[in-house]
Write a structure and sequence with these properties.
alpha/beta; seven-stranded parallel sheet; disordered C terminus
Length: about 675
């Protein structure tokens, strides 16, 4: 009688009933979904629904907002799939349902659900009446972000795909749908890379529903194509003298370069990005490939190219290469500093004019072509954009690959810039203000534009926190002028940490510091005075690497430059001391990844973090603990955008965290006034 209302009948949850089985006057309670926003779902008697719909009110959630009853219905639908959905997917579902705009206890519960500090048992308590909404909102269990990957439940493929059978997924935003499908495909790939036989066998028992079937079909088609990929006949890679065929991951990434042309490789350190990108350039039969990388990585690129494809020709460090074999595969490896020279723009234009056979560009550690401000491109990035734009205009099938284990280190401007580089177009609709919704939107686009996977490492990782009492030094810290910043604080903390650092030294140890001025020079003097042979690999000094890797240098001081793009440390070193810790989890992962990677002969990689702690009354103050908490809980904006992990606390910048802790310390007063007393 009311065919226009059939769209609100839930497509799966009422089976075996159909809307034709019940008259409009029926009191049977069934599930409905909103024809405008399918994420709105509720149970209601047929008679009541028909009456509301005839009055122009077909969706009780659209009409009245989220009541406790409708919230429970939403959570009831979500509960079976909670463990299979990650934070970014939960965020998208809540956003599409309008739940991010709620207030009070409802908003608190939804936020806790998204950051995964509320688990299935917590929600079940609300649904069964054992807990009230207010109790759930005010009870904050240990943050879910502390669960690392090893602690996450091992999902079966059936469970993973079942999540896409949820009524929450008929979302009308086409970009959101594309993200959810690609996210599902990448989950299957990540699971296959780690458990191939189990994953492929279990695909025979997955649910036959539109979304799950689409994801499974996409994955299986791509998996078949990846395995059928033809490897170039001159591929000859050897690692430690042993012939090494491309891994499944490298074949996948090379295949995606061939089919997508412009893509991002955002896999973890030591996963084989370099070989994957080179293989991709050969899969597309690139005649000339330009590689942009940090200066100190250029020799490594040349070595790897000739190892993998010995018939190739390689030139480095010039925009006027002279090729010996103008018809074979050629690689030009450039460092980013060349983009800043006064005549670089003219040289780039001439190079492209002289190379109509330029088919591919590999941008290694693309975040190093910096964007300082959303409205001000760095000179490096301006020249890089010019180069790739002209190349794409000249060659319609031009391929571009952005490569990094950490595509964003600090700001969302870096994320948007990376996406614009990959897409070859401006993306002004991607907002870069430091908010969680903006980070989630950029995360969704990163998933659509590249592939992300952190491989499991075979060696054991051991992290030791060396706590150092700095209570007696609090007056020095408190006496810092208001104009002082993080550098001045770190200079004081350096003198506090130094004795512990010297005790930890053994041959072939790396020492990391993210602060140079007033720290590296006295640190080097102290280490040499203790009798150690020392080298430097920092922003200004990069000449100590060779002797550390191949000579008698025992200790190497490194800064952020050593954290990205360099391969080789792992062959001689398995101990790292962090004089101070990086401020983002991404950079910390990169730093550890210099040692946690293929070629590490030791069974254990040891990382020592020096933690200065002051005890004032019953309170403890620690700048190092604050930074460490950010690393472990991935609270930074960059981590939210790259890995889709929604922070469980408000986002803070380095300066905000510094001001917060220093302000807290100043309010406590001096140690003499508070030691032994409650604060």
């Amino acid at each position: 009688m009311y065919p226009d209302l059939l769209g609100a009948w839930h497509p799966t949850d009422n089976a075996p009933l159909s809307p034709h089985d019940l008259p409009p006057s029926s009191t049977q309670i069934v599930r409905w979904c909103c024809p405008i926003n399918p994420a709105h779902s509720w149970r209601e008697a047929v008679h009541d629904f028909v009456q509301h719909a005839r009055e122009g009110r077909p969706c009780i959630i659209c009409e009245h907002g989220w009541s406790l009853d409708t919230l429970k219905l939403f959570l009831e639908t979500l509960l079976p799939h909670l463990n299979e959905l990650n934070s970014s997917e939960l965020f998208l579902i809540a956003q599409q349902a309008g739940l991010l705009d709620t207030t009070g206890d409802t908003n608190k519960v939804i936020r806790s659900l998204i950051d995964q500090s509320l688990q299935r048992d917590d929600l079940a308590g609300l649904l069964t009446g054992k807990q009230s909404l207010h109790q759930l909102a005010t009870r904050r269990p240990p943050p879910g972000l502390s669960r690392n990957e090893d602690e996450l439940p091992q999902l079966q493929t059936f469970d993973l795909l079942s999540a896409y059978d949820s009524p929450l997924f008929p979302i009308q935003d086409e970009r959101a749908i594309a993200y959810l499908i690609e996210s599902g495909v990448q989950k299957l790939w990540r699971r296959t890379l780690e458990h191939p036989e189990e994953t492929l066998a279990s695909l025979n028992h997955t649910p036959d529903t539109p979304y799950a079937t689409h994801i499974k079909t996409r994955f299986l088609d791509e998996y078949a194509a990846v395995n059928a990929l033809t490897i170039p006949p001159d591929y000859a890679l050897r690692i430690d003298g042993v012939p090494t065929p491309p891994s499944l991951l490298q074949r996948l990434l090379a295949y995606r370069i061939g089919t997508r042309r412009r893509t991002g490789i955002f896999t973890g350190t030591g996963s084989g990005k370099t070989i994957a990108a080179l293989l991709g350039s050969r899969v597309i039969n690139a005649r000339v490939t330009v590689i942009l990388s940090p200066h100190y990585v250029v020799p490594m690129w040349e070595e790897v190219i000739l190892n993998a494809f010995p018939n190739s020709e390689v030139c480095t460090g010039t925009l006027s290469p002279v090729w010996k074999t103008p018809t074979g595969p050629r690689y030009l490896v450039l460092h980013y500093e060349l983009l800043q020279l006064p005549k670089s723009e003219d040289q780039l234009r001439r190079f492209i004019e002289r190379h109509p056979d330029l088919d591919c560009c590999l941008v290694d550690e693309q975040h190093l072509s910096k964007v300082r401000h959303p409205n001000q491109l760095s000179l490096r990035r301006q020249r890089l954009n010019l180069f790739t734009t002209l190349a794409a205009q000249q060659t319609p099938d031009f391929a571009l690959v952005a490569m990094s284990a950490t595509p964003i280190l600090n700001t969302l401007e870096e994320g948007r810039s990376t996406l614009e580089l990959i897409r070859g177009e401006a993306l002004p609709h991607l907002e870069t203000a430091a908010t969680i919704p903006n980070a989630m939107r950029i995360h969704q686009e990163i998933v659509l534009s590249g592939f992300r996977w952190i491989p499991p490492y075979p060696m054991r990782y051991q992290e030791e926190h060396v706590e150092i009492d700095c209570t007696a030094d609090v007056p020095r810290i408190q006496s810092l002028p208001s104009s002082a910043g993080i550098l001045e604080l770190e200079q004081i903390l350096y003198t506090i940490r130094l004795p512990a650092l010297l005790r930890l030294l053994t041959p072939k140890t790396m020492i990391y510091t993210n602060m140079i001025e007033g720290i590296v020079e006295p640190l080097a003097q102290a280490i040499r005075s203790a009798g150690w042979r020392l080298g430097l690999f920092t922003g200004e000094h990069k000449d100590g690497v060779g002797d550390f890797l191949h000579g008698d240098t025992q200790i190497l001081i490194v800064s952020d430059v050593a954290a990205v793009g360099f391969d080789g440390f792992q062959r001689v070193c398995h101990r790292l001391i962090c004089l101070n810790t990086p401020f983002t989890a991404g950079l910390y992962d990169q730093l550890r990844g210099r040692l946690l990677r293929l070629g590490q002969p030791h069974h254990t990689v040891e990382v020592f973090l020096l933690i200065a702690v002051a005890t004032i009354g019953t309170s403890r103050w620690s700048w190092d603990r604050e930074k460490l908490a950010r690393l472990h809980f991935k609270r930074s904006l960059a981590d939210a955008a790259v890995d889709g992990i929604v922070p469980d606390t408000p986002l803070q910048s380095q300066q905000q965290a510094y001001r917060h802790l220093m302000g807290w310390l100043s309010r406590l007063g001096t140690p003499a006034a508070t030691l032994g007393h409650n604060s």
